[in-house]
Design a protein that fits this description.
Structural class: alpha/beta
CATH architecture of the largest domain: 3-Layer(aba) Sandwich
Largest sheet: 7 strands, parallel
CATH topology of the largest domain: Rossmann fold
Helix content: 25-40%
Distance between the termini: 58 Å
Strand content: 15-25%
Number of domains: 2
Order of helices and strands: EHEHEHEHEHEEHEEHEHEHEEHEHEE
Radius of gyration: 21 Å
C-alpha cells in the first residue's frame, strides 16, 4: 500500500492553527503546507510566526504580490501539486485558487477548516444552497490551460460550530483539544478586561462613528484596566490612539489572540467583542473566563445584514452575556 502525503492550503493564522489541530485529531503524518500570502503584512507575519509550531514535510509559499499575473502563478502551482496524489486535503477558503486546487489535485478526502465566523455563511450559502460550482467568468480562462474548474468532491467540515451534517458532507467538531493540552498548563488568572477589536469599519459593516460610540460605551462599563487588542487587519489611527491611558492599553500582537494568552500563561478575566471567532475559540480554551458580545442592531449594519444575523444566531448558542447599547448612550448587560 502506497503511503500518501496530506496537503494543507492556508491563507490566515487561524487556518494554520486549525490545520495543526486537524493533524493531531486525525493523527496524520507526512504533511505538506501551502501558504497563500496576501497583501496584509500583519497577516503574513503572523503566519510566519506560527510555521514552526509543526515540523512540516515541505512548505510551498505562494506570494500573490509578485509582478507576474496570478493566472500563470496559479497554473504553475497546480501543475506542481498535480504530480502527486494526496490522502487528505485541508483548506479554509473558497477563492479561485482553492477551488482550482480542489478541482485538479488528486486526493481521497477534502476538509474545510474554519477561518472565522465566515464558516457559518460558507455552510449556508455554498454547501446548503449548493452553489459550490457557481463560477465567475474569470475562472473559464483556466480551461485554456487544460485545468478543470468543476469540483466533484464532497466537502467535509472540521469546525468549532454546531453545524448539521449534510447528505454528502461530514461535520467533525474541532474542540482545540491539542492546543489545550499543549499550552494551558500553569496559566495564571488576571484581573483585566480584554476588548477584541474587529475591522468592522474597514470591511464596511459599520460606520466609524458608530464603532467609537460602542467603544466609548463599553469603556464606561468597567472600573478595571482594559486592554484593547486590535484585529490583525484593523487600522489603528490617531482617533484610536487617543484612548491610551493608564487604564486603557492598546496591545498589538503578532500571533493570534488564542496563542498570545497561551504564550503569556494568562487566564483572561473577561473577554468582550463583537462578531469574532475568538469568542468560540477562547471559550473552548478558557472555560472560567467571563465573555460578552456586543449586539449591533440591524439598522446600524451597512452591508451583509443577513450574514451578520446568521452569525449572531450561532453566537447566541454560546450562552454568554449580551451587551445591548441604548440610544441614550447607556448600556445594559443581559
Amino acid at each position: 500500500m502506497i503511503k500518501l502525503d496530506n496537503l494543507f492550503v492556508i491563507r490566515s493564522p487561524l487556518q494554520l492553527i486549525n490545520c495543526i489541530e486537524a493533524i493531531n485529531y486525525f493523527n496524520l503524518k507526512d504533511n505538506i503546507l501551502v501558504i497563500i500570502y496576501n497583501n496584509t503584512e500583519n497577516t503574513n507575519k503572523q503566519i510566519d510566526n506560527l510555521i514552526d509550531l509543526y515540523p512540516w514535510k515541505n512548505i510551498i509559499r505562494l506570494n500573490q504580490e509578485q509582478k507576474r499575473s496570478k493566472f500563470f502563478i496559479y497554473i504553475a502551482l497546480i501543475k506542481k501539486l498535480k504530480k502527486e496524489r494526496y490522502n487528505y486535503l485541508f483548506f479554509g477558503d473558497f477563492g479561485s485558487i482553492y477551488k482550482l486546487i480542489i478541482a485538479n489535485v488528486k486526493k481521497n478526502q477534502v476538509w474545510y477548516v474554519d477561518d472565522g465566523v465566515g464558516t457559518i455563511n460558507v455552510y449556508k450559502s455554498i454547501l446548503v444552497d449548493n452553489t459550490l460550482n457557481k463560477l465567475s467568468s474569470r475562472m473559464l480562462r483556466f480551461l485554456l490551460a487544460g485545468l478543470s474548474i468543476k469540483i466533484k468532491d464532497d466537502i467535509n467540515l472540521f469546525t468549532y460550530f454546531d453545524l448539521k451534517p449534510l447528505k454528502h458532507s461530514k461535520v467533525i467538531y474541532n474542540g482545540l483539544e491539542y492546543f489545550s493540552k499543549q499550552y494551558l498548563q500553569n496559566s495564571v488568572n488576571d484581573d483585566i478586561v480584554y476588548i477584541l477589536g474587529q475591522p468592522l469599519v474597514e470591511t464596511n459593516l459599520l460606520l466609524e462613528d458608530d464603532y467609537f460610540y460602542y467603544l466609548d460605551s463599553i469603556k464606561s462599563m468597567f472600573d478595571k484596566k482594559i486592554i484593547y487588542i486590535p484585529h490583525r487587519t484593523e487600522v489603528i489611527d490617531e482617533r484610536m490612539n487617543r484612548y491610551k491611558s493608564d487604564d486603557f492599553e492598546i496591545l498589538e500582537i503578532d500571533v493570534p489572540v488564542e496563542l498570545y494568552f497561551m504564550n503569556q500563561k494568562i487566564n483572561p478575566y473577561h473577554i468582550v467583542s463583537f462578531l469574532t471567532t475568538a469568542l468560540f475559540t477562547l471559550k473552548k480554551l478558557y472555560k472560567k473566563t467571563k465573555y460578552s458580545y456586543i449586539y449591533i442592531p440591524s439598522d446600524k449594519i451597512l452591508e451583509r445584514k443577513e450574514d451578520v444575523e446568521n452569525i449572531y444566531k450561532i453566537i447566541k448558542t454560546l450562552n454568554i452575556d449580551t451587551i445591548l447599547l441604548k440610544s441614550n448612550n447607556k448600556t445594559e448587560q443581559i
